[in-house]
């Protein structure tokens, strides 16, 4: 797939939906493709909504961003915030401490673990909570060994960092198990080499099955599933997405 910029144009009037629609329409008419547009992907600005409606196009929201909104929904869960805050606190402390980095590298070498740096999540960065916990699991033996090292133990106790437990590790493992499919789905639809809108409905069906609450789920698992699918299930419910998928195929 090749991407072309048809026109870059400065607009000196108010960026209303009507103005945007007129400017886009003129460019599409210039290139003779007005009747060849199946759908348009835009941001969530109100003026863009108005512009797309005026042009009578199907609006297709960014699916990767939609998946990220589902992933972000877990930040507000009480079953997630407390233990992830403990992990985040240790990660921040280790990343800021020069001695912490040195001791962690020593433990990585001693335990034959990859010499990877810890990752700190940032809510606006896609899937960063998943990546922080995935790296935490990978480096958990080294983190535990470093936190018990006398060069770090007293400073960490002085800073009142909550000590990580096996329960924190198990919760992180369960989180990774459940959220990995959302992470890989985001990577799949973020590809720049092929059109991806035809993958939206199949991926949503897969996610619906994956995040269905089942008997025997833990409190954490059940709350994660309800939060993620509760967010995603409200999206892509119009006939527009089905029309676009048919045209793509």
TrEMBL record:
It is found in: Nucleus. GO terms for cellular component: nucleus. Signal peptide: none annotated. The keyword Transmembrane helix does not apply. One of its GO terms (molecular function) is zinc ion binding. The keyword Ubl conjugation does not apply. InterPro entries: RNaseH-like_sf, ZnF_BED_domain_contain. SUPFAM superfamilies: Ribonuclease H-like (SSF53098). Keywords: Metal-binding, Nucleus, Zinc, Zinc-finger. PANTHER family: ZINC FINGER BED DOMAIN-CONTAINING PROTEIN 39 (PTHR46481:SF10), ZINC FINGER BED DOMAIN-CONTAINING PROTEIN 4 (PTHR46481). This is Zinc finger BED domain-containing protein 4. The gene is LOC117554604.
């Amino acid at each position: 797939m090749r991407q072309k910029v048809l026109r870059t144009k400065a607009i000196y009037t108010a960026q209303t939906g009507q103005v945007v629609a007129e400017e886009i329409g003129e460019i599409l008419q210039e290139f003779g493709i007005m009747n060849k547009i199946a759908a348009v992907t835009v941001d969530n600005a109100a003026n863009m909504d108005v512009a797309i409606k005026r042009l009578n196009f199907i609006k297709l929201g960014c699916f990767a961003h939609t998946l990220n909104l589902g992933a972000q929904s877990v930040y507000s869960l009480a079953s997630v915030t407390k233990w992830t805050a403990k992990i985040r606190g240790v990660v921040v402390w280790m990343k800021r401490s020069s001695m912490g980095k040195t001791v962690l590298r020593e433990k990585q070498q001693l335990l034959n673990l990859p010499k990877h740096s810890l990752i700190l999540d940032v809510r606006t960065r896609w899937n960063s909570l998943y990546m922080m916990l995935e790296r935490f699991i990978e480096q958990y033996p080294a983190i535990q060994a470093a936190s018990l090292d006398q060069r770090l133990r007293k400073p960490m106790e002085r800073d009142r960092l909550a000590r990580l437990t096996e329960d924190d590790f198990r919760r992180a493992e369960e989180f990774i198990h459940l959220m990995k499919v959302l992470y890989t789905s985001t990577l799949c639809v973020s590809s720049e080499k092929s059109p991806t809108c035809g993958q939206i409905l199949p991926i949503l069906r897969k996610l619906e099955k994956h995040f269905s609450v089942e008997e025997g789920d833990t409190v954490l698992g059940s709350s994660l599933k309800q939060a993620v699918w509760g967010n995603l299930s409200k999206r892509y419910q119009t006939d527009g997405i089905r029309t676009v998928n048919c045209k793509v195929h």
